[in-house]
């Protein structure tokens, strides 16, 4: 049987009522005890990394999770990370960049209700995660939830309460799990025997995500420039800025770029991505300034990828190369 390590980080799956709302308090061992059937699939050991509401999980914690996976990588055949759902898609994307080309599977999962409740989705999500992580064709980072297997760079939480909380954005689910049976839609080629993953150890957290609304001015973007190394600007439709290449937003982009900062454009529309070449308001901006475009990357992937890129280099040419380098189908052009 395969040896699997489960890393617990908190979240709803591990929550109890505190008297002031739900709060993570259940240990990794207690979580496993709720699903004894997992013992029929593999030898499993548990590690409690942290016990946090995922609202409080950020770049420093992603590095901590990645470090724990790196430290234990040679000792186990696969890994399951239990996590709160609110920032799970960010963590899945971040781990996809921090741990690349992994021949062993790393699965992120959680639940919309505590594992202690009778009508919870936690036990099935956890069991399904072990079904996937023990399959010999599984590798790299993925998210398992409500019977779906989603690439770590393609997951997004789209519902706050329903059990089918996550979707795969602009890319197919790679598999589904029904009644304990794994059904693959996409089977990526296996890694060569002896292949080793690449672990990265730095992230740059000073990335700003700014969503435009009609009538919004550029003042906030100007004022925040001194606090961030990069900005991702979520624009309307296929992408563009109010005023095009002559407006105040364009002038502010010029200031950001002049100060050696990175400016990324993406759409705030959930599906189908951006294309700034379609309209004048976008084309003018791309012609005048060295802005990057996220195209069909998810918001979570664009944010965490930019953090990863800036953690590796501050050279504009290398930033552009790494940002446009596809990782686990995060960018399809």
Tell me about this structure:
- The chain is α/β, with parallel strands linked by helices.
- The chain is 27% helix and 24% strand.
- The chain has an 8-stranded mixed β-sheet with strand order 4-1-5-7-8-9-12-13, sandwiched between helices. It has a 4-stranded parallel β-sheet with strand order 15-16-17-18, sandwiched between helices.
- Helix 2 (59-72) crosses helix 3 (88-98) and helix 3 packs parallel to helix 8 (299-312).
- The longest helix is centred in the first third of the chain and has 14 residues, at 59-72.
Main attributes of the structure:
single chain; 333 residues; alpha/beta; eight-stranded mixed beta sheet; four-stranded parallel beta sheet; 9 helices; 27% helix
Task: Describe what is shown at a glance.
This protein is an alpha/beta fold and 333 residues long.
Termini separation comes to 41 Å
Separate helix tally: 9
How much strand content do the residues show? 15-25%
Mean pLDDT, all residues: 95
Largest sheet strand order: 4-1-5-7-8-9-12-13
User: What gross morphology would you assign?
Assistant: globular
Main sheet record: 8 strands, mixed
Number of strands: 18
The gyration radius over C-alpha positions equals 21 Å
Order of helices and strands: EEEHEHEHEEHEEEEEEEEHEHEHEHH
The proportion of residues forming helix, as a percent range, comes to 25-40%
**Low-confidence runs (pLDDT<50, min 5 residues)?**
none
Structural class: alpha/beta
